[in-house]
Design a protein that fits this description.
The protein is of the alpha+beta class. It folds into five domains: 3-63 and 125-209; 67-121, no CATH class; 231-334, no CATH class; 342-543, Hypothetical protein af1432 (Orthogonal Bundle), CATH 1.10.3210; 567-688, Isoleucyl-tRNA Synthetase, Domain 1. Helix content is 49%, strand content 14%. The strands form six sheets. Strands 2-3-1-7-8 form a five-stranded antiparallel β-sheet, with helices on one face. A three-stranded antiparallel β-sheet has the order 4-6-5. A hairpin with a 2-residue loop joins strand 7 and strand 8. It is flat, with a radius of gyration of 34 Å. The two termini are 50 Å apart.
């Protein structure tokens, strides 16, 4: 008879960001282990609170399923001699499988007869497997920053303080990190004490009685219902904020939402100044009216019941008031100095000890942004606005507001620029040049924001790589991948045909002009090109392009982002047409043979057959035109013109043999095929298509 299984790992408070990954791991590990151990079950449920991870397996079988398997042995000709007696190979195979040689049987595989053994293994009792099963579940969890405690070598998110392990109403006997598994868990830290679990089926309800909602989804639903109800009471609503909600549900065990008030005297402050301390520092939900305007209320979620809720509300209001009072003071003081006057103060702020001050960085941004503006052919007045944006982009870093609230960099700079009388394009550019700030964030829309954003990110990437700082595995402390992806996204959205190689060289030159020593450009170029190619591939994959389509187009040129995207679009469209089949067949045949060619120009004087002469003429008539269309990014037209060669190529292969004995003629024909590959490959290296 099947029974329910429960494993709860009780810990000290776990950081909220660890929980989603651990929940997924626990689900996957439980499924994997059950599969490997041949343990049938009905359902796997995973739970998490700040003080525990738990897995509940409903209907876990009492024993493993019996194993019956056919194991392939040696070929019949090796297993038996001429008289039909088993050889040493057959006897050894039978002994290894624990069967009598007489029980071996013959089956064919791919037309070859082999001997097989039928292996049967009775399943073990589940309760004998569960101690190791539990330990494998615990040790199989991995965290970004695990810690040791006491003199133990084992690492976990936070110290483990208790373990509950039950199969039916029986405790699973095992010991781990000097703790014996039992049936006693702990309820809410302040509202409950120890709780005895007699059976896994009662786990969720028993803990609910102990003021713990173990199901994160139940906590999510409860929080949303409560905050929406409170917002409606004051005629408002809470905007969706998945990240804030995710964090809140993983720092509480028993949610009780409450409505707090924001003092009217602070509502004149810019909205981000009010909402940043709410969300980033206090984990409050701002309340807005139907038009999206901020209301003088906030909602917070208490980890507990509604006891003395008025006092909790007053305490939260007091904390927020203190933060907003500081912000109001900073806002008044910052406005006394025009933003432009703060630029020189950046000389005293170190960007990186090996990359100079922020003021030096501003000079590099101005130089690189200016070069991008020239490449784009902007008018002089727009160039000046770009330069002004680059000059002021980092000035807010020395304001009192940004010093205390670093999340507001760019946001305050834009606001202070507006107050200082800067033009709207400059104000917008200062705000947008940090975008995208996170995955899924918007890209800058203004030309000032786009140009300075590209300059800012390219400077950061080249500088970091130049001093040996590169992303490794999942580690990317300087968010270089996101910044590179931002550059690719901006270039694609804006449609700018600017070579990444030009930007890399220009950014590198700016460091050299400031006598900042980086690794040699020759060492960096290839690495940086590969780095950007990976980001371009990621962006295009997100747009739905097949991996082999991307392999083909990126094999030729991944440094012109917009052109690569156009090639991907055209190739994706063309490969779904009937006409593409003979096109790619011709390319592949030419490609495979041309690899045998010796380096050298095509000598048309050697050609003698009308088919090869006609092909050579066809190439001559179209070669320059196809190259011109490719340079202009007109890939559809280039493909159409190149496709005119297909009948001529087919005629060539029908008329002549390429690999003739006459060396000069053979090389001329191979060179002819090389020319075909170059023209037909206007969309990419088609040999890489699956």
């Amino acid at each position: 008879m099947a029974k329910d299984f429960l494993l709860e790992i009780g810990t000290e408070e776990i950081p909220a960001k660890f929980a989603p990954g651990a929940i997924q791991q626990l689900q996957e590990q439980a499924q994997k282990l059950c599969g490997e151990l041949r343990l049938a079950y009905d359902k796997i449920l995973v739970y998490s609170t700040p003080r525990r991870f738990a897995v509940l397996i409903q209907g876990l079988a009492e024993k493993q399923t019996d194993l019956t398997a056919e194991v392939k042995g040696p070929a019949v000709k090796a297993a038996y001699d001429a008289e039909g007696n088993p050889t040493k190979a057959a006897l050894g195979f039978a002994r290894g499988q624990g069967v009598d040689p007489k029980d071996l049987f013959v089956k064919e595989l791919n037309g070859v007869p082999y001997v097989y053994a039928r292996k049967e293994e009775s399943g073990q009792s589940t309760d004998k497997l569960l101690p190791q099963f539990c330990m494998d579940l615990i040790t199989g969890l991995h965290f970004p920053k695990p810690m040791r405690w006491g003199d133990l070598e084992f690492r976990f998110a936070r110290p483990i303080r208790w373990i509950v392990a039950l199969y039916g109403n029986e405790v699973i006997p095992f010991e781990f990190v000097e703790l014996k598994a039992g049936n006693t868990t702990r309820g809410h830290r302040t509202l409950s004490g120890s709780i005895t679990i007699d059976n896994p089926a009662e786990y969720v309800e028993k803990l609910r009685q102990g003021f713990v909602l173990v199901d994160p989804e139940e906590r999510r639903q409860t929080v949303m219902e409560q905050i929406n109800a409170l917002a409606q009471k004051v005629g408002g609503k809470v905007e969706e904020d998945p990240e804030l909600l995710e964090e809140v549900i993983h720092i509480i065990e028993y949610p009780t939402a409450l409505l707090g008030e924001v003092a009217q005297q602070y509502m004149h402050l810019p909205e981000p100044v009010i909402t940043t301390p709410m969300k980033e520092h206090q984990r409050y939900f701002p309340v807005r009216n139907g038009e999206g305007k901020l209301l003088p209320y906030f909602i917070t979620v208490r980890n507990g019941n509604d006891f003395a809720l008025d006092k909790v509300k007053a305490g939260n209001e007091k904390v927020l008031k203190a933060r907003l009072e500081d912000a109001a003071f900073y806002y008044r003081e910052d406005q006394k100095t025009p933003l432009a006057d703060l630029v020189e103060k950046l000389e005293k702020v170190t960007y990186h000890e090996k990359l100079g001050t922020v003021r030096q960085r501003v000079d590099r941004l101005m130089a690189l942004a200016g070069e991008i503006a020239v490449l784009l052919g902007l008018e002089e007045d727009k160039k000046e606005l770009v330069q002004r944006t680059a000059l002021l982009a980092k000035a807010d870093l020395v304001t009192l507001m940004v010093y205390d609230f670093p999340e507001l960099q760019g946001i305050m700079g834009s606001g202070y620029a507006r107050i200082s009388g800067e033009k709207p394009e400059v104000c917008t550019g200062i705000l947008e040049h940090y975008q995208p700030r996170f995955a899924g964030d918007e890209l800058p829309k203004s030309y000032t924001g786009r140009i300075v954003s590209v300059a800012d990110k390219m400077d950061a990437i080249v500088g970091a790589f130049g001093i040996g700082i590169q992303p490794t595995g999942s580690q990317d402390p300087y968010a270089l991948r996101r910044q590179a992806q931002g550059i690719v996204g901006i270039l694609l959205e804006a449609g700018w045909d600017i070579s990444l190689d030009k930007l890399i060289k220009a950014a590198y030159a700016n460091f050299a002009q400031q006598d900042i020593s980086l690794l040699p450009l020759e060492e960096l170029q290839g690495t940086l090109q590969d780095f950007f190619q990976q980001r371009l591939r990621f962006v295009l994959q997100e747009q739905g392009y097949r991996y082999d389509t991307l392999d083909a187009i990126l094999a030729q040129d991944s440094l012109h982002v917009t052109k690569a995207a156009k090639r991907a679009r055209v190739l994706a469209e063309k490969r779904d047409t009937q006409d593409f089949i003979p096109y790619v067949q011709a390319y592949t045949r030419c490609f495979n043979l041309s690899k045998k060619a010796q380096a050298g120009e095509l000598n048309t004087q050697v050609l003698r057959d009308p088919a090869e002469i006609a092909l050579a003429q066809g190439i001559s008539q179209r070669k320059a035109a196809v190259a011109g269309l490719v340079d202009q990014g007109e890939y559809e037209a280039a493909y159409k013109l190149a496709a005119e060669l297909i009948p001529l190529i087919e005629a060539l292969f029908n008329a002549v043999m390429i690999m003739v004995e006459e060396e000069e003629l053979k090389q001329a024909r191979l060179a002819l095929l090389t020319e075909c590959v170059n023209i037909l490959g206007c969309l990419g290296d088609l040999s890489l298509l699956a």
